[in-house]
Amino acid sequence: MSTAASALRIRRWTPASLAATVVTGAVLVVLAFGPLLFSANVVDQLGTLYVYVILAVMWNALAGYGGLISIGQQAFFGLGAYAAIRVANFGIDPYASLFLAAILVGLLSLPVSSFMLRLREGEFAIGMWVLAALAHLLVTLDPIVNGETGTSLIELNAFPSALRNALNYWTTFGAMVALLAVVFLLLRSRVGASVQAIRDDEDAAGSVGVKVLATKRIIFVLAAVGAAMAGALWLAASVTFQPQAYFSVQWTAYMIFMVLVGGIGTFEGAILGAVIFFLMESWFGASGVWYLIGVGAAALGFALFFPRGIWGAVQRRFGISLLPVGYQVTATDDSQQPGAGEPTTPPETAAQSREKIHS
Asked: Which region among 127-141, 155-169, 198-212, 260-274 has the lowest average model confidence (pLDDT)?
């Protein structure tokens, strides 16, 4: 091993990431008691934020880590809401129906992935958009939906308003925490390293033994389940279901905006982007078309001048990783590396770290 390499230290957890994890846990504990601590309006707003976080993290897992740029995730968002209505019609508890709907959409995404994942780059993106349009059309043909008129999850009307708001909050909060934990643990696993290797070079990943199609299928199905869960949760809050609203491409546009602004390919960036988008919508949403113009202009500006997003830029400049998915390489020898002890590169996978050391 070279002298320069011996001055490097590879680690996943840092004092900053440990402190951030503790703070995050404490915040989640407080938020778990939201309906008991906050007003009804704040509870409703937080529920909206949680749905945005789910959408951002799931699209970031698919595109930022998996390299599968999709402009058709609204297909799963709308199917999640539709499936929740269908499942509840069988007499199943409406809140249990939300989770069952996400699972059913996940199962449906398995055969869909068999042909969608054979498409690459632009073909995959357009293929997903076509899939969303097809799903929209098929749902409107169901008599229970009444075409574009839509229907509603009437089973929720059996709950008193205050209880329903609390149950909506806890269901959304629990789903968000569970899905974020699944994504976090998956990205830290061998599968997560394989997913990122495929993103960087699919052919090279396959040549070293990575099961490309099976690995891509895992992240595809997970993203489908997350989007479907978000759609079902949105239905629980709004009660009404109109296909044109749920299958609108605006949902994928929101996902892309949140991830671009926060930082594509960073776990923290997706969450940050969701918070920024939520605040923009809260403050400027009433501006109508000017709000949409502002969102589009902001997305274009970040794509041109800050392609790594806010957290991506911070991570590149300071090497900070608060919720570590990969590893960090830090300098430990003052004589060899200036600024020893500070992160010298953004978090990376174990394979990337070993490659750098042995080279």
From this structure: 198-212
Does residue 299 fall inside a structural domain? no
Residue with tokens 């995959």: 124
Domain that includes residue 262, residue range: 34-287
Residues 6+ apart with CB under 8 A from 53: 176, 180, 270, 271, 274, 275
CATH of residue 227: 1.10.3470
Domain count across the chain? 1
| Mean pLDDT confidence for 22-46 | 93
Listed residue (2, 1, 6) closest to 340, CA to CA: 6
- Residue 341 CA to residue 38 CA, distance in Å, equals 42
Task: Give domain status of residue 17, yes or no.
Answer: no
Rounded CA-CA distance 57/226 in Å is: 9
d(CA 124, CA 71): 9
Would you say residue 104 lies in a domain?
yes
Residue 131 vs residues 36, 64, 76, 86, 259: alpha-carbon distances, Å: 42, 21, 10, 20, 22
Structure tokens at 65: 């880590």
Whole-prediction pTM = 0.86
CB 131 within 8 A of CB 119: no
